[in-house]
From TrEMBL:
Keywords for the protein's UniProt record, in alphabetical order: Membrane, Transferase, Transmembrane, Transmembrane helix
CoA carboxyltransferase N-terminal domain ranges (all copies): 1-254
PANTHER family in UniProt: ACETYL-COENZYME A CARBOXYLASE CARBOXYL TRANSFERASE SUBUNIT BETA, CHLOROPLASTIC, MALONATE DECARBOXYLASE BETA SUBUNIT
The keyword Cell wall biogenesis/degradation appears for this protein: no
One GO process term, biological-process aspect: carbohydrate metabolic process
Family annotation (SUPFAM superfamilies): ClpP/crotonase
Bilayer-crossing regions: 148-174
Organism listed in the record: Chromobacterium haemolyticum
InterPro entries, per the entry: AcCoA_carboxyl_beta, ClpP/crotonase-like_dom_sf, COA_CT_N, Malonate_beta
A single MF term (Gene Ontology): carboxy-lyase activity
Superkingdom of origin organism: Bacteria
Protein name (database record): Biotin-independent malonate decarboxylase subunit beta
Length: 289
């Protein structure tokens, strides 16, 4: 690929959550709800000696994308690693629930989720878990009507309960730099030891949970270059298609069959994972559709 083309890319990962949404939505259609001026902060962080953020790390907006109405949400990975608590989780769940209600009243509304998150905020453990459960339920409700599209571009990735949320979405786009998983590398190493998963081995981590690998093993629908225009084109295509005939989370029997063939005593590597989990295959998308 030409060096000039690479330099000309508008890398979504280099922008904050609010600007990422504005890059993807139709010009002038971004309308933020519960913005920082509403001072909707977590009441729990100050008790831990942590400075709260006035939007609690989640940008919630309404807008249009290729003319389609969307509930647009972005998690700010730079704030506490994109972790979710009571307030930020409620913002996401509430927006998705409102979108589902709009569909039931004849106003087609899809959802776009920009996920850069380590999962539940430890300072708000049970409250965060309850909020993420509400997010899961809201995604399953909304996806019956219009697509729920998730995008993760890095550098934080998408882990924990929000990794499950990504799997529930109608479509999932990752860049090569993004990562997707349930537990992060440090957590796995802490619980199982470095012989199981060395959190300092960056090549191992991206080979197992990076965007290209997750696409090759069927856990993501597209692996795209980190470019706002290319990502927007892919999201447009999914909005035009509508919900898929069968969501990934409905393929329970397929995944059970794969797990039944795995030998958990063998150390996982990229090749073995691709061989076992390649339920869907496709080429890495270089420039969008």
């Amino acid at each position: 690929m030409a060096a000039v083309e690479i330099l000309q890319r508008d890398r979504l990962s280099e922008h904050g959550a609010r600007q990422r949404l504005k890059k993807l939505l139709d010009p002038g259609s971004f309308r933020e709800l519960l913005d920082p001026f509403q001072r909707l902060e977590s009441p729990w962080l100050e008790r831990q000696g942590i400075v709260a953020q006035s939007d609690d790390g989640v940008v919630a907006a309404r807008g249009r994308l290729d003319g389609h109405e969307v509930a647009a949400l972005a998690i700010e990975g730079a704030f506490l690693g994109g972790s979710l608590g009571e307030v930020s989780g409620a913002k996401i769940a509430g927006m998705l629930e409102l979108a589902a209600e709009a569909n039931r009243h004849g106003r087609p509304t899809a959802a776009l989720l920009l996920l850069e998150t380590g999962g539940v905020r430890l300072q708000e453990a049970n409250l965060g878990l309850a909020a993420i459960a509400d997010i899961h339920a809201a995604i399953v409700d909304l996806r019956r009507y219009r697509p729920v599209i998730a995008v993760s571009v890095g550098p934080v990735g998408c882990f924990g309960g929000m990794g499950i949320a990504a799997g529930l979405c109608s479509y999932l786009l990752l860049t090569r730099e993004a990562r997707l998983g349930l537990n992060g590398p440090a957590v796995i190493e802490q619980e199982a030891g470095p012989a199981e998963y060395d959190a300092s081995d960056r090549e191992l981590i991206w080979n197992l949970s990076g965007g290209e690998q997750r696409h090759a093993t069927g856990f993501a629908d597209v692996c795209c270059v980190d470019d706002a225009a290319a990502i927007r084109r892919q999201v447009q295509d999914w909005l035009r298609r509508g919900p898929p005939p069968r969501h990934r989370s409905q393929r329970i029997d397929d995944y059970r069959a794969v797990l039944a063939r795995l030998d958990a005593a063998e150390q996982a590597d990229a090749g073995r994972a691709r061989s076992a989990f390649s339920l869907t295959q496709g080429d890495v998308m270089e420039g969008g559709l």
